[in-house]
Amino acid sequence: IREGLTNLMGGIVTPDGTFVVGSRSFSNNENQLYLINTKNKTTKLYFKKPNSIFYPSFIDGKTMSLYGVTDYKRDRRGCARIPLNKPNHVYYVLEKKNKDISCGYGEWSKLYYTEESYKGRTELTFYRSMFKDKITVPQLFNNQTVSPKSFDRTTNQMLLKYSAANVPGAMYLFDIKTK
After folding, report:
1. How many CB atoms neighbour CB 68 within 10 A?
2. Which residues have CB under 8 Å from 21's CB, separation 6+?
3. If you ran DSSP here, which 8-state letter would residue 86 be given?
């Protein structure tokens, strides 16, 4: 897919396959998003804010909104949404003054998640519904970084990688009871 002379990189598809949101990067502090209608084969500019980024994470089929990470009008990054029918309308969902927050949805686990980064550490939290019904991930080390590696839906077990200054990369099995 091309817009002008620039290739669009990556894409997030709506659950019904009607729309794709593609990203075009200009630098590490600015990108644009394009909304591609797969039925009528049109492309239109969806997000463009000077010196701002919006990294798409997932599209919610119920609200028909794109969720992702942005720094629009903020010093830190937060989780925000843009309704598909309201280009450039950014609504913050989760944000904190002293932390960068990323959000997403794991199709592999059917869980939503947030990553909060600050002071050299990353906290990972999972949710059974969109940023509600929290599943807390254990705090094992000081200044840890946690990242999910795999999830087995049949046993409700997740493999998490923990890293810290004195722990280069330990793997732990974490049990989750899902509904």
Report:
1. 27
2. 11, 12, 33, 34, 35, 36, 46, 56, 59, 66
3. S
**Which residue type is seen at 111?**
L
The Cα 107–Cα 16 span in angstroms is 15
What beta strand segments (E) does the chain contain? 2-3, 6-7, 9-13, 19-27, 30-37, 42-48, 54-60, 65-70, 78-83, 91-94, 100-106, 111-118, 121-129, 132-136, 145-152, 157-164, 167-175
Q: What is the pLDDT of residues 98-146, one digit of tens each?
A: 999 999 998 777 889 898 888 877 888 889 899 999 887 777 766 778 8
Instruction: Give yes or no for a contact between 138 and 174, defined as CB atoms under 8 angstroms apart.
Output: yes
Distance CA 17, CA 100 (A): 31
Question: 20-27: which pairs have CB atoms within 8 A and are 24 or more residues apart?
Answer: 21/46, 21/56, 21/59, 21/66, 23/55, 23/56
